[in-house]
């Protein structure tokens, strides 16, 4: 659906339908590494965030609401998997180049308010997600990765088939 919506924004409806049909028949995106981890929900929310940001849909919504919703989708994607940094850098570059495209007070104010809305919403939502994880007792450091080697330890444990194990926790703590 997102492929169709994206393509419809930039091409004719027939081309968008063909692109979305070919995407559904393309096996690579469903069988590659994304199936083996939590990338699928993260990728969906990243694409949805980019769609909302780029197209400005729904048009009847105020730009602050659209950017906040786009930031929410990116924060949810970051909750699942920390790939959102790539999109954040691209969005920051968009705002910077937009300001320097025409250095007038109105243009600077236009991009500054939108950038502030987007990044403030993203930071607030990411901090809220992190606090919920801390309050829920899931991880004392929230969304921060306190031990980057943890996934390697989990992935190489044949006895737990790559799943969580208290024995792994004790080995890392030693």
| Helix share, percent | over 70%
The N- and C-terminal alpha carbons lie at a distance of 48 Å
**Outline, from the CA principal axes?**
flat
The total of helices stands at: 9
Rg measurement, Å = 20 Å
List the helices and strands in order.
Answer: HHHHHHHHH
Oligomer: single chain
User: What is the tally of beta strands?
Assistant: 0
Class from secondary-structure proportions: mainly alpha
Poorly predicted runs are none
For the sheet with most strands, the description reads:
none
In round numbers, the mean pLDDT is 80
Provide the β-strand percentage band. Answer: under 5%
Show the helix and strand layout.
Layout: H1 2-10, H2 13-25, H3 28-31, H4 39-55, H5 63-80, H6 84-101, H7 105-135, H8 150-155, H9 166-173
Helix pairs in contact: 1-2, 1-4, 4-5, 5-7, 6-7
């Amino acid at each position: 659906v997102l492929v169709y919506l994206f393509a419809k924004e930039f091409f004719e409806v027939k081309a968008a339908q063909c692109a979305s049909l070919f995407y559904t028949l393309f096996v690579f995106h469903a069988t590659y590494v994304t199936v083996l981890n939590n990338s699928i929900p993260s990728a969906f929310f990243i694409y949805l965030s980019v769609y909302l940001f780029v197209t400005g849909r729904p048009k009847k919504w105020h730009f602050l609401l659209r950017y906040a919703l786009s930031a929410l989708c990116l924060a949810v994607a970051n909750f699942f998997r920390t790939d959102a940094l790539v999109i954040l850098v691209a969005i920051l570059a968009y705002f910077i180049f937009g300001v320097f495209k025409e250095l007038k007070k109105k243009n600077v104010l236009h991009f500054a308010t939108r950038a502030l809305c987007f990044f403030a919403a993203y930071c607030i939502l990411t901090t809220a997600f992190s606090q919920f994880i801390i309050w829920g007792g899931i991880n004392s450091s929230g969304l921060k990765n306190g031990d980057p080697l943890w996934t390697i330890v989990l992935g190489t444990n044949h006895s737990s088939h790559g799943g969580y194990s208290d024995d792994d926790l004790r080995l890392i703590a030693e």
